[in-house]
Every structure is written in structure tokens, then in C-alpha cells.
Amino acid sequence: MDLPNIENHLSVHNIQSITNWDEGWAWLAGGTWLFSELQPSLKVLVDMQPLGWSEIEVVPFSDSNSFKQVKTVLSIGATCPLSKLLQYSWPPEWRAVEGLKSAVSALSASMKVINMATVGGNICLALSVGTFAPLMVALDATYEIWNLKGETRRVAAKEFQVGYRQTILQPQEVLRRVLIPVENLKWQVNYQRIGIAASDPALAIVVSACNPDNLQLRCAIAASVTAPILLDLHDDRQIQNFAFLQEVNFIDDAKASAIYRREVTQVLIKRSLKQLKI
């Protein structure tokens, strides 16, 4: 879709070169959502592609409270296209990569979209039906955030999205990369979703991850709630009666009631844990 109100398009190679960020400015990554509907409030698009943040690499990691015991992490650049996750040659022992592939396929998007849409764009758009956010929460990922002054901060994935189209990003901040502990990539992951139709946005998403070494379990729910929630499933009795779901505020709208979303979320959790043989 054309955006006739856009007055300027900036192509930058260093975000610190931007000194006059103002209202009506927006970051442009893949643009698959940005150009899908009118954006009357926008005047300037800042193209992120020249920044070269599309890497997939294993890097040493230190000086972070979130990863005190972690030596290496998988770094996925914010502008990494979704198609690259499908094409990359992943180590066979990284079983959790199947979750990344499931997050791509869950979009039910054409290859044209997948070739342009980015990991960072999917996360920062912060839709309740976002496919990557619950996976990153389940894998205990951390997001690295930069601002125009060159300052860096890191936040746990479970704390990044706070509501529908709402994140903790401040004005002039941008997601730089996603960091996943390499050890967590060896976990077993199961990705479940349900919608009215396969091509429709999900009514509920459940992503479970299990560490086979100590059977530590992490389970994230999304789509049925405004922002991903990490569930505490340490007690077998909790898994049996699902009483904890009564305390969750599920979305209640024209597509599905809160009661229905809670029930299908429970079904997906059961399916997910069964697939993990828990």
C-alpha cells in the first residue's frame, strides 16, 4: 500500500547519526506490516536494512545479570528475515530450532512476506497473536536494546511486551538483537496454536520447552492474552487441574469469549506437554 503522507525516507548506517528524532518518525525493517495499512501519523521512515543487523551467529556473552552462568549465546539480529531462519544450517543438537521454524510457519504467510518480514519486526509490533514472542519467552531469551546515544540495555523477553501493541521500548530506542542461551537451544520445544481457520490469526498459542537434563519446564501462552505470559508449572497437581488459568485475564472479544480462550489454552497446554512426553 502506498503511504502518500510520508515526506522523507532515511537510509542510515549508524543510528547515532540520527540527531533529530521527532514525532511522526518510525523505524522501517521489512515493512510487511507497515505498508499493509494506512499510517496517517507517520512522516518519516528510517530504513534499518543498511545497518546490517541480520546476522545469525554464536557469540561469547558476559557482563549481564540475565546470563551469569552462560558462556555463549545465539545472536539473531533484529533485521534478520524470517526466511533465513528456515534456510540456515543449524547444528542438529539444537532441537529448539524447530520452534523457530514453527513460529515462521504459524504466520501462514507467503514466501514473499517471509523473505521480507523480520524477527525484530514481529517482536516489536507486539500483537497479541505475534508468533515469536511466546517462543522467546519459553526459551528464556534476552533482548538487547540500543538508543540513539549509543547506550545499550538488556531485558528479559518475558518483560518486553506489556500489552497489545505495547512494549517497554522508549522513544528513540530500537531492538538490536535477540540473545538465546546456546544450552537452551538443546531443549525440546513444542509449538501449538489454534484459530478459527488455519489462515486466521490464532485464538491461542502455547509454547512449551523442556530441558531434558533436569526436566525443567517452561510454558508460555499467547494470542489468548494481550501479552505473552510465562506459566509456572513446577507442580504436577497444577498441570492436572489448571486452576492457575483462572487467575489469567484472557481476551474477550467478538472472535472468542474469555471462557472459550481459557478452555482452548488448556487444551493446547495438554497437547504440548503430551508431545514433550511430560
Q: Could you walk me through the main structural features you see in this protein, from its secondary elements to its overall organization?
A:
The chain is of the alpha+beta class and 278 residues long. The chain has 3 domains: 8-49; 56-183, Uridine Diphospho-n-acetylenolpyruvylglucosamine Reductase, domain 3 (2-Layer Sandwich); 186-275, CO dehydrogenase flavoprotein, C-terminal domain (Enolase-like, domain 1, 2-Layer Sandwich). It has helices spanning 82-87, 97-105, 111-116, 119-125, 133-138, 157-160, 236-241, 258-275; strands at 8-11, 25-28, 44-47, 56-60, 72-77, 142-147, 152-156, 161-163, 166-167, 173-181, 188-194, 204-211, 216-222, 229-231. It has a 5-stranded antiparallel β-sheet with strand order 4-5-10-6-7. A 4-stranded antiparallel β-sheet has the order 11-12-13-14, sandwiched between helices. A hairpin with a 6-residue loop joins strand 13 and strand 14 (229-231). The model has no long low-confidence stretch (mean pLDDT 89).
| Spans where pLDDT lies below 50 across 5 or more residues | none
Per DSSP, the total helix count is 8
Order of helices and strands: EEEEEHHHHHEEHEEEEEEEHH
How many strands, which pairing sense, and closed or not: the largest β-sheet? 5 strands, antiparallel
From the alpha carbons, calculate the radius of gyration and give it in angstroms.
19 Å
Strand percent estimate:
25-35%
